[in-house]
């Protein structure tokens, strides 16, 4: 249990730090970039946020390979150290007025480190949870990944609401925005301390020599496991669109394009996020009993059929937004609860960290990082509804890909 908590808490810290940047960027943009042009400052801040996405595949490949050859534990300690270090750097960043363009350069370097960290964390924590789990309880163990992720996103959002309610805009803009980054860095040190006591997985120890002898490991995943790579990309395509649609893109779209009340929208999302977290363990347990594949098919089919009708409800009214978020995130929990297990069951141990790290993060960078941009671009042209058809098409692709999966419930990992 201590090991499970250490892995999960570390993952929570990673996602807390990632979410805090998006939440508080509106306050520090004109501190780090020239304040005489707020629009350009916000653009620079959000561009820095987007660039971090494209370092996730690099982090996934480098840290995934490191985990395959040097151990899950060492890699997971390195990822949380990178994330915590990035948070501390952002917390103490000098302003643009003090050091000029050195400030945004330092911000970019910190975010590159955090992007690489998150790319490695997803693959390594997924592999670790799957490898320490008994074969008949792997779904339950995997559910802790998104229990921690959802909790971190919720805490970061609530912390943002708390600071905005207790501090003035001037205080937030001048120094208040630094507080959550300091806390994120401190939590990272706590997570690092917890991870020191984790034991290495037996799977890694038994396959370390094989991993070290592999030449061109990324090409090996394509040469020997092309079907698994395609399957991972197919369901990750829909997964990442679901994540960034419900947790990121729909909120500004509802407020800016559908005249929804921002407070009601945030409250509805918070309630739905709590539901999302609560459903993780039950769905993980169901997959151990009835299988992964049926659960994934229900998720992808439900999104394909319901995402467009749900989009018709986006707009004014608390209950409308609560239904949109709760239904969408409720079905999404069917996948997230078992995602680490599914991804880990696709690849053998000597390629698991790299296989997940490279192809998962590449898909996320291409489709998740661009989701807010796509819906904003379409909304500006009065065609915001097309985004939900885009998600529905992705759901059909995921459904077809999932049909080709073999059932892996109770599988002994290779």
Account of the 3D structure:
- By secondary structure, the chain is mainly alpha-helical.
- It is built from 19 helices and no strands.
- The protein has helices at residues 2-32, 38-53, 56-70, 72-91, 96-99, 102-132, 138-166, 169-176, 178-195, 202-213, 217-224, 226-257, 262-290, 292-311, 318-336, 339-346, 349-368, 371-380, 386-403.
- Helix 1 (2-32) packs parallel to helix 4 (72-91).
- The longest helix is centred in the middle third of the chain and has 32 residues, at 226-257.
- The model has no long low-confidence stretch (mean pLDDT 87).
In a few lines, what is going on in this structure?
The chain has 414 residues and is mainly alpha-helical. The protein has 19 helices and no strands.
Name the descriptors:
414 residues, mainly alpha
What is the element layout, followed by pairings?
Elements: H1 2-32, H2 38-53, H3 56-70, H4 72-91, H5 96-99, H6 102-132, H7 138-166, H8 169-176, H9 178-195, H10 202-213, H11 217-224, H12 226-257, H13 262-290, H14 292-311, H15 318-336, H16 339-346, H17 349-368, H18 371-380, H19 386-403
Can you count the helices? 19
Helix fraction by DSSP (H/I, runs of at least 4): over 70%
Give start-end ranges of low-pLDDT stretches.
none
Overall average pLDDT: 87
Q: What is the number of beta strands?
A: 0
Largest sheet: none
**Cα-atom radius of gyration:** 21 Å
How much strand content do the residues show?
under 5%
Shape label:
globular
Question: Structural class per helix/strand content?
Answer: mainly alpha
Query: How many angstroms does the end-to-end distance come to?
Result: 24 Å
Summarize the helix and strand pattern as letters: HHHHHHHHHHHHHHHHHHH
């Amino acid at each position: 249990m201590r090991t499970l908590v250490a892995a999960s808490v570390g993952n929570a810290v990673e996602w807390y730090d990632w979410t805090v940047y998006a939440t508080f960027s509106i306050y520090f943009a004109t501190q780090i970039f020239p304040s005489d042009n707020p629009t350009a400052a916000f653009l620079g801040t959000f561009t820095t946020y987007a660039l971090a996405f494209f370092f996730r595949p690099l982090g996934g490949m480098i840290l995934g390979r490191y985990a395959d050859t040097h151990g899950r534990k060492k890699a997971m300690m390195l990822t949380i150290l990178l994330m915590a270090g990035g948070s501390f750097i952002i917390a103490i960043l000098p302003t643009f007025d003090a050091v000029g363009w050195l400030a945004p350069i330092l911000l970019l370097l910190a975010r590159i480190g955090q992007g690489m960290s998150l790319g490695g964390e997803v693959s390594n924590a997924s592999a670790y949870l799957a490898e320490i789990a008994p074969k008949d309880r792997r779904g339950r163990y995997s559910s802790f990944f998104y229990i921690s992720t959802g909790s971190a996103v919720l805490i970061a959002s609530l912390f943002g609401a708390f600071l905005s309610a207790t501090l003035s805009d001037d205080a937030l803009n001048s120094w208040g925005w630094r507080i959550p980054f300091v806390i994120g860095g401190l939590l990272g040190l706590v997570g690092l301390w917890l991870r020191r006591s984790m034991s290495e997985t037996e799977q890694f120890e038994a396959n370390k020599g094989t991993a070290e002898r592999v030449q061109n490991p990324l090409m090996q995943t394509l040469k020997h496991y092309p079907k698994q790579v395609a399957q991972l990309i197919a369901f990750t395509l829909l997964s990442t669109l679901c994540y960034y649609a419900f947790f990121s893109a729909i909120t500004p779209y509802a407020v800016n394009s559908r005249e929804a009340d921002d407070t009601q929208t945030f409250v509805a999302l918070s309630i739905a996020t709590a539901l999302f977290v609560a459903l993780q363990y039950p769905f993980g347990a169901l997959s151990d009993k009835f299988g992964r594949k049926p659960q994934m098919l229900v998720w992808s089919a439900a999104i394909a059929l319901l995402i467009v009708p749900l989009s018709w409800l986006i707009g004014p009214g608390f209950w409308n937004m609560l239904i949109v978020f709760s239904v969408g995130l409720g079905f999404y929990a069917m996948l997230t609860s078992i995602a680490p297990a599914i991804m880990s069951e696709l690849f053998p141990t000597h390629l698991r960290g790299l296989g997940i790290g490279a192809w998962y993060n590449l898909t996320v960078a291409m489709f998740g990082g661009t989701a807010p941009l796509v819906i904003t671009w379409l909304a500006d042209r009065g065609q915001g509804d097309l985004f939900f058809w885009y998600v529905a098409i992705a759901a059909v692709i995921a459904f077809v890909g999932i049909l080709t999966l073999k059932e892996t419930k109770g599988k002994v990992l290779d």
